[in-house]
Structures are given as structure tokens and as C-alpha cells.
Amino acid sequence: MKLIIPLLGLAAASLAAAPTLPVPSQLPYQWNNVVIGGGGFSPAIVFSVAERNLAYLRTDVGGAYRWDALTQRWIALQDGQAQNSYMGVESIAPDPVDPDIIYLAAGMYFGQPAAIMRSADRGASWQITPVPFSMGGNEDGRGLGERLAINPDRRTHLFFGSRHDGLWDSEDSGRTWHKVESFPWKGLGRPAANHTHGGVSFVVFGPPSETALGRSRAMYASVSDAAAQHLYRSNDAGRNWTAVTGGPAAPMLPVKAAVDQQGVLYIDYCSDIGPNGIAQGEVWKLDPRSDGWTNITPARGDEAEGGYMGLSLDRLHPGRLAVSTVDRWNHRDTVWLSSDGGAHWTSLRERSSRNLARAPWLLLDKGGFGGWIAGLAFDPFDGATLAYTTGLTVFRTEHADKADMVWRPWVAGIEEAVPLSLVSPPEGPHLISGIGDTHGFVHDRLDRAPERAFADPDLPQTNNVDYAGVAPRIMVRSASGYTPNPEGGALGWSEDGGRSWHEMLAPPITIGSAAPRRIDADGQAPITVSADGNTFLVSGLVTLATADRGRIWWRPKGLPGRTYAVADKVDPLAWYAIDYAGARIFVSRDGAKTFTQALAQGLPANIANSRPAAREFQPMAAATPGTAGELWLILEGRFFHTSDDARTFVASTPVDPVLRRMYFVSFGLGKAAPDVHVPTLYAFGVTKTFGGLWRSTDAGARWLRINDDAHQWGLRYRVITGDPRLFGRIYLATDGRGIFYGDPLPQPMGAGVH
């Protein structure tokens, strides 16, 4: 999943890995994932060869996981990290002898911090070494690799193939790094804007050399950028390198490789580094005894569509291997299996079935086998177990040796969805979510995967959800595809709390001299609903309203363009509209027929920087459930509150002098504390030295930190909302670790509540 987060990313990227000043008072909270099961792209599964039933998973935005055989769950390994960039894992390398040692290469984008991380306790704790080369854990090419490799003959000696700066090595278990000057490919340096490099895409070692007199085993490294030569070999532990000639012609780029026990090298090739945009692909093998190449590509002729990204060898059965396709949109992606070194292949999709009981919402994947299959791995201790990753989940079968295979989601503990909107209505299920790439869900239970995803419109990204304040079964949502959808609907409304939806289109309108067009076709127009559920407002280049479910639309009078509308949660005729460019608030008291500028005393003179950066970001504005005329805003990092229909706004000033320097990024409202008459505020805020989640029960005067150093999730927080029925309950949408819900732990007698 590639979602850009300029505001959140900047706020988190500016922080040190741990607080350097005393953090204000802590309120202990219990945190649990809302179970979805997968929900994102995991570029690779890597099994340990040192211990049975030990495996690791790397994700592009949600950190790394370890499979725990005892609990039969994946364990997230980076939840305690505050550096957002480290949640994009570029490569992963388990020690081949000691099962307790694991290395990660972590860094999300070029120009952001990158590190090599070492753990001696299977990822429970980390030694972090910042490195001078950039990574791209969530850039194009994240399905390549593995780039990080351990020398099996001297396990303190590591190699890392960088995207932009050639090959690097460390001789002290990753504590210090040096560029391998003898490696011919030096790198292309800084990439052009909105572009990346494939760079050194994999580093692999062969079996022990047959001529053991002081000679190391063969070692290969590839280059996945346009170059005269793409493959290099070293026979002396990386001190010297020679080009390996032959193999496929341009435009093929080597993307993934494995070496069998006889030293035969297998390589997947693609015409692009992917995971999108791959038009062609091939699979080849190289016998080092003769330097002879063989094209073993499974699909030829009319079926030669897309590339090959996954590759795994069965250690227990020589000659048995599997490869996966990628970007095979017409013929659909599959996994190919060969038992004779690639001479003959069988496609597994046609002989497979899926048991989706653990994640039934995956029925939305109508392809039946999944796409973006970059990760593929045999269990090194059991050739009947084979797993692969898709853009949505991880599948595993224990029947890879059978004619008919049953695949199940291998997702217990994996929560990688990127929620873009959360609401907690005052009745019905406590949580409704809008998700990037996986539509969105009604969460009837927080501990069980949803049965189905949103449809009508059947679009992958739900950018915002809203409910009617006094008729909460009426909901609206806006959605988008990966490209604009000028013909189909991008808006939806529901009258049963989000269980079923009706598609709705905004009409084409004329803006200036341009031809008429729809403002909602690309998902850039969030929709909101009046308190009684009768009126919908769509905010975009202009504001549109309908009171009959989209049959007739009007443009409210008195509003400038590009305002954002918020419905009062009690008064069905009251609306607020925020003009970020003009630093103005407009109010309607006639059901959005007309708006007039509010007095809005107390607001900052410039709030342009508070405008949401894109359709995937929620405006920091919320009307109070159960109270008319009350609106809360975050503007320029500060809280503002009105209780008189936007006539006057009061800025919240924290009592704690440390928190007065806090820049608040996002917030949500929840049930008021006992005997308190303002909603509980939940917020994400940062200073120059630390950040976290905060709770206030007195309109922002006193705050308590409610996350802790073990629950930081890279400080990648998308959306926050409280529960209007449960005091203390917060729902947190992270950017890559799914949705969490938090509840306060019991406090000692006499402890205050803030």
C-alpha cells in the first residue's frame, strides 16, 4: 500500500527514537487490535532454517512480524518504535544457525531515516544502527530481494544491497557499515522526483564450495536498474566480483533469486521493478559448473503476461521450486510449481480452493487467488507447507504435495490495514471503518474479522464516513478507485448502519470556463449528513447538497469554493463550513440552503496550513454528539472550541508547560467523564522531542498520555475517535498496523481522572 502522509510523516519523522524530556503524566491503557486479518501488502515471508515453525514477515508500512508456533499467532515486532520510517521494512534476514538472532533493514522512503536493526531475542528488543544509505520499504520495488544477507561462513559478516548507493557490508553484526568499493555497480545516487531505483535487488549465497581449500562459497548480487550488466558473482566473500554474462535480454531485470544445494541459481525477471507496471517476465536458471543458462519460464505465448516476483526452493526435495506471477491482470495471478527444476510446471490456481473462515471479507477479492504475489516461501522443514502474500493478505496451504490444495488466510495477529475514517455511532455496532484498499467494514465484534466489506460503490478506498447525529443508522461515505471513475458512483448512503449501501453520483457541474465535470469522481469530495439524516452535503471544488438521496442537487448560497462542511449532531438545520484559505467559518440554519459568515471571534488569522492534505485525510473538525451548537477544531496545531454556533471560539491552553509546546495533529471526541459536561478529547500531539496519544476530560486544559513506549506504532496515526457510549474508550487508526481500541486500566483508589 502506497499512501502518502505528509503531515503525519513529518511530525513523526522529526522525533528522536525515544523521549529526551520528561513526558507528562501517564494514564495506563490496555491496547488491542480490532481484528480484520491482514488488509495490506506484505512483500516477503522468510522462514528460519535454524528452527522449525519459525517464520518472519515484512510489510511495507506496518513493520515486521514473527510467527509464534506456541500461540499460533503472528507477533508484531516494532510496535514500540517512534520513528515512523522504520515501519517500512526493506529486507529481513534470520541468522541461519542461531534462531534467536534476526536482522531488519528498515526505512520507508528516500531521504527518511534508515537503519539496520539487530535482535538477539527474536525481535522482542532491538539494537538500532542508523545507516548512511536510503531505503524504500514502501517505494516501488519493495517486492524485490532479499537485499540483506548473512555470510553463512562468518555470521558476523553482513551484506546489504542498497537502492541508490551500491553494495555495503558490515563485519561486526551490523554495527558499522562500509561500501564495497570492489562491487562494479556504484549506484545511481539521488533519484528523480516521484521515482526510485531498484538498485542491488538481492544478495544470495550458494552452498559450500566443492573446492574447500580456503575458498568461500559462491555469492551473487544483482542490479535491477538499466545497466549493461545485471548479475555479479564473488567467490571470496565479497572481496572481488566478476560479471556473469548471458541470461535474458533487455528489458528484463533480475528481481529475486535462490540457490539450490547443487549451486544452481534460479532468478525471477521482470520488465519493471513493480509491484505495478510489469508487462513481461521470465524465469531462468544458471548452472555454475558450465555457466550455462536455461530459460524455464512457465507461461509462454499468449499467456506470457506480467512478470514473476515470488521464488522459493523446496530444501527437502531437490529440483522442486515455486514461482509466483505478478501483474497478470487478464489471465490472473497464480503460483507455478515444478518438480524437475523448471522443465515442467503446474499452475496451482486451477487446482486450489480457499477456506476464508478466518477472514471472510476476503471474498471481495474476486480473482480468487490474489494479486501482487511478491512473497512466496516453502517451509524449509516441510515441503507440503507453502505460503504466499498478496496485496491484501497472506495465504498458506499444508497440502502443497496434494493434487488439490486448500489455502487459508495465515493472518492471526497480522493487522496491516490503513484506515482512513472511523466513526463510533451512539447506537448499533460501536465501530464503523473506512479503509484504504479494502473498502471498509461494520465491526459487529472487535475480536473477530468482519463478514463482508462495503460495496455500492464497489471501490477500494473509503475516504470518509459520517453518520446522522440523531438518526445514526443513516450513514454516508465517499470512495475512490486507483484512477478517477467519471462514469460510476463514488458516493454511498446507508439506512441500516452501514450493512448495505446505495450508490449515488454527484452531477456534473460547470466551474469557470471548464467543461462540466463531477467533483466526486476521484474521491476528492467528502460527504457529510445532517443530524436527522435527510440532507447530504458534498464538499469539493464547490459544495453540493441533496435532500432526496441524490435525485435533485443544489449549490448552497453564500459559500466560497473549497470549503469543508460539518453537520451539527443535534440540530437538523444547522451546518458549519470551514474556509481554510480565507480563515472563515460559515454557518447555515436553514438546512444548507444558505450560509452566512460567522463572527468566529478568537480564530487564528491564517489557517491555510490546516487544510487536509488530500482526500485520505480527515479535516480536524467535529461537532459534539448530543449537544447543539458546539464545534471543535484543530487549527495550526491548537484546539479551538465554540459552544455558541461559531460566534466565539476559545483556544485550549494546556496547564502543563511542556504540553503548551505540543502541536496537535488529529483528535476525536468521546463520552464525557462522570459528572463532566464536555466531551472527552483524545488527540495525537507532538513536540520536537516526543509525541503520543493524549486524553483530556476538561476541554484541553489537562492532558494525560495514554499510549506508552511499548505502544507507539511509529507514531503513524491516521484517525482518532472516542466512543460516545463508553467513557475512556478510544479507537485509533494507524497507518499500517490496523485499528486499535484502548481502554483505561483500573486505577488505584484516589487517582484523578483527566
Fold and architecture overview:
- GO terms for molecular function: hydrolase activity, acting on glycosyl bonds.
- Keywords: Carbohydrate metabolism, Glycosidase, Hydrolase, Polysaccharide degradation, Signal.
- With 754 residues, the chain is mostly beta strands.
- The protein has two domains: 37-409, YVTN repeat-like/Quinoprotein amine dehydrogenase (Methylamine Dehydrogenase, Chain H); 418-744, YVTN repeat-like/Quinoprotein amine dehydrogenase (Methylamine Dehydrogenase, Chain H).
- Helix content is 1%, strand content 34%.
- It contains one helix and 56 strands.
- 55% of the residues are buried.
Q: What would a concise description of this structure say?
A:
By secondary structure, the protein is mainly β. Mean pLDDT is 93; it is low at 1-21.
